[in-house]
Write a structure and sequence with these properties.
The chain has four helices and four strands. By secondary structure, the chain is α+β, with helices and mostly antiparallel strands. The chain has one domain. The longest helix is centred in the first third of the chain and has 14 residues. It is globular. 22% of the residues are buried. The model has no long low-confidence stretch (mean pLDDT 87). GO terms for molecular function: beta-tubulin binding; microtubule binding.
């Protein structure tokens, strides 16, 4: 998408020669990008080093509720494990020595990241989710899809 407007961050044919690639299932990742775009007005997301360790069918993402102009602290992020069928909050942190799929206590499984993020969100977060512009959501989705952050992380 960025190439259409003249921005070529990674040469398509040989991009893997310049950055490490973490292959993920495209249809699943696009759905995940949609969920992230819908909640981006009130959630902050960042990559996780664990993505390269869990295979093509799963993604680990760090996320936290974000309602202020300040950048969230690293400690405020939680790890979420997403697959095509479920999403859950993990007990571990980004800084643990070994990966574990142990679920955070009193956490329910959800069908997707959007529903997982909403679970336990504040009233302010719910208000922002309802008021988010579809133009903003589409823009964020296009940016995530164009940069393919889960593949190039």
């Amino acid at each position: 998408m960025l190439r259409a407007v003249g921005i070529n961050l990674f040469p398509y044919r040989d991009g893997d020669k310049y950055v490490s690639i973490c292959k993920k299932e495209e249809s699943f990742v696009d759905t995940l990008y949609q969920h992230m775009a819908v909640s981006a007005s009130c959630c902050s997301y960042t990559w996780s080093k664990w993505n390269s360790d869990i295979g093509q069918e799963k993604v680990v993402v760090q996320a936290c509720e974000w309602n202020s102009p300040k950048i969230p602290s690293e400690e405020s992020y939680q790890l979420y494990l997403a697959s095509e069928r479920i999403c859950c909050k993990l007990k571990m942190t980004e800084y643990d020595r070994e990966f574990s799929e142990e679920i955070f206590p009193q956490t329910q499984m959800h069908p997707g990241l959007y529903h997982m993020i909403r679970d336990g969100g504040s009233d302010e977060m719910m208000r922002k989710l309802k008021e988010t512009s579809v133009v903003f959501i589409d823009c964020v989705h296009q940016l995530l899809s164009a940069t393919n952050v889960f593949m190039y992380s």
